[in-house]
Amino acid sequence: RDELLSSGFWAESRGAVRVPLNIPAGPPDRCVCFGLGRFSACPIARDQLAFLLLLLEELRVPPARCALFDPAFSAREAAAALEALGLRLLPENEEGKHGVGGSATLFYMVHCGKALYNNLLWSNWSPAALSKLVIIGNSFRGIEERLLSRILERDYSYIAKVLKGTEELALPSHPRYLDTFNDTSVHWFPLDKLQELSPEVWNFVEEPTYQDCEDLEIIR
Hints:
7-stranded mixed sheet, Rossmann fold, 41% helix, 12 helices
């Protein structure tokens, strides 16, 4: 935490992370974190956890309203996250299929697999639900640029379909945190942009399946 503050990276990032305060759905009153990793052993995961705690303070989301899940968490880490930091753990692996339930929700998903983002979108596949959702995670623009369009549409169809309804703002690049927050953006989904998408986009709501995908760690 102190290193993030002293490095200047947090100060440079504040403009981007404050975006959720100004979305029409209102500021998030809860947060869900997927895929944080083994923060007791991994410096990158510790930096991402410190960033999450600063983020909750900035957005005034109480730690008790932030839930985490990662199958890699040890029992000791789970206890630390719960007891020492005031956060709570989701009781089971939802595979990213977490509905907002009518509440503006921030999802903190740095460096997660594409299937996890795809599942999250599917679980909230309506303009009303998506407009209440903010994602801090891998750049959707970057995913579009790196994948062949036929692969994106076949394997991650919900990411592909929502691209034209997405606003995205990248976190700044900082030499100290190139491996920690590279390719990370804030994403939100304005209701007016979602409503401009064709009705066919919303009619297809088949649950995603993954046959030949490589980034399914938290899914499996």
